[in-house]
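Table 4 source record.
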Amino acid sequence: MALFDGVEGCALVGMVHLLPLPGSPGWAGDVAAVRARALADAEALLGGGCDAVIVENMADLPYLRGAVGPDTLAAMTLCVSDVVALGAPVGVQVLAAANSQALAIAGVTGASFIRAEAFAYGHLADEGWLEACAGPLLRQRASDGLPHVRIWADVQKKHAAHAVTSDLSLGDLARGYRFCGADALVITGGETGAATDVGQVAEAAAAGLPVAVGSGVTPADAPTLARVADALVVGSWLKHDGDWTKPVDPERVRALRGVLDRA
């Protein structure tokens, strides 16, 4: 299922990992530098062949639970606006599970979609217990007049424990997410950079929604994953030395794009 207009087959989505934002422990005091790095990474991703990007406050460790402060929100809105101006589809993820704020950013910047943690089924993450948010989030989207902003929902979010839903298969969960109104599903490994199981991707796809792979994609497994997924979201491998804290490596972006084009 096509996730973006004009993109046939499996889409390649690159991650723009923002430098630490105001309000986070790592904040360095220079919002201009944060914006410049975000724009440079986005240009490298799109110039190398990515079909879309997601902007995320990855460096704001340790994450707050369910909301960020106004200073973080303001800075992230500026960065997303800069990236949206490049003209490609842009997603927004505000960690951790600050889905309402991500939707607000998308609404004012013109971003195309958000990536949402804890959309359906509560679970225990390293930030603490995350409540399901589908009900209030979809009501916010309707009241704000944002039906065009799609919601990509993580199923069995990485860096989290899912014992409370262990009596449900991944397919059961995927169908539950569809019932709750998600527009697409994201399947990942257990942590950042961990490989995603292709069988789980296929199981989720059987629910009838588009499915994106959300972690661990490399040129070695990209062709196999692309045969069952509608998008590959790639962060770490596209950075210099495969390190998510470093800038995007244009050569790696072109290399992965080439692998997908030849698959």
